[in-house]
Design goal:
GMP Synthetase, Chain A, domain 3, 4-stranded mixed sheet, single chain, 2 domains, Rossmann fold, 13 strands, 256 residues, 28% helix, alpha/beta, 36% strand, 7-stranded mixed sheet, binds S-adenosylmethionine, 7 helices
Length: 256
């Protein structure tokens, strides 16, 4: 067994290449017996890919469902493992962001998925307003359900569509913009910087090897300069480990 993630009732397992199906099934049945909250075991059969960052999974054992119900940071989320991006490994990061929010802030979450960042921030109770923008229709459908599940109607808004097109329709500037970007080449920095207020913060997420960290930050500053935005880097943090030497970084950009 190489690795797995538990998403509430579903365990997503990744097996070494070449393992026989019968052996995978045996291991899946064992996991089902061992992990009391798990009712279904599926195999991850591809990386998160495409603009919607979806993964493909194959049922192996337990109840035949792809629908997850999970609890994270005291909030509850429903989603489909095949049609929506969700990583339980970002749970601490979501808590860190929620703790940064001060009373009365307007918080905009771009690339919101099923709204885990937005729900955790809104549930913390200090933000005056939270909006989450997500391209995928399925993820947005679940995001709406998650708003209701967590009793945040009227406090958290869900906007479905491309961030490049949708942010211009939003009212006013934002104190904090969370950009949990997909792992694609577009930095989308221009989008975040166009809606953050002066004195506000953009939490920009990027991926790379530790040897590329400096270059990544320098690239962001250069891009901000070209957009004629005054930006200082107030922090660069590891927000997740993706492999040997490879990390998901959060770059905090303060706009003046
Ligand atoms: C890495 S996932 C992050 C999702 C979520 N923030 C989370 O932590 O679970 C990136 C998300 O961005 C969405 N996405 C990709 N391109 C987009 C775009 N141009 N506008 C809005 N959302 C987009 C994908 O559908 C995906 O749900």
């Amino acid at each position: 067994m190489a690795s797995y993630d538990v998403l509430g009732n579903i365990l997503v397992a990744k097996f070494p290449d070449g393992m026989k199906v019968a052996e995978k099934r045996r291991k899946a049945e064992r996991l089902l017996r061992e992990k009391k909250s798990v009712r279904t075991v599926v195999e991850k059969i591809g990386k998160f890919s495409g603009r919607l960052r979806t993964q493909k999974t194959k049922w192996l054992a337990g109840e035949k469902t792809k629908e997850v119900l999970l609890t994270e940071n005291g909030c509850s989320f429903r989603l489909n493992v095949d049609t929506c991006y969700f990583s339980p490994r970002l749970s601490t990061e979501r808590e860190r962001i929620a703790k940064k929010v001060r009373r009365g802030e307007r918080v905009l979450v771009l690339f919101g998925g099923v709204a885990p960042f937005a729900v955790v921030v809104a549930k913390a109770g200090r933000a005056a307003e939270v909006v989450s923008v997500e391209l995928g229709r399925e993820a947005s459908k679940y995001a709406l359900e998650n708003v209701k599940r967590n009793k945040l109607s009227g406090k958290l808004g869900i906007v479905q569509g491309d961030v490049r097109r949708m942010v211009s329709g939003l009212r006013g500037k934002w104190d904090r913009v969370v950009m949990a970007r997909p792992r694609l080449s577009d930095s989308f920095l221009d989008v975040g910087l166009s809606v953050v207020r002066k004195g506000g913060v953009v939490h920009w997420y990027g991926f790379g090897h530790e040897s590329e960290k400096k270059e990544m930050v320098a690239g962001l500053l250069e891009e901000a300069g070209k957009l004629r935005k005054k930006v200082t880097v107030s922090g660069v943090r590891v927000a997740g480990r993706l492999g040997p030497g490879m990390f998901r970084y959060r770059v905090d950009l303060k706009v003046s």
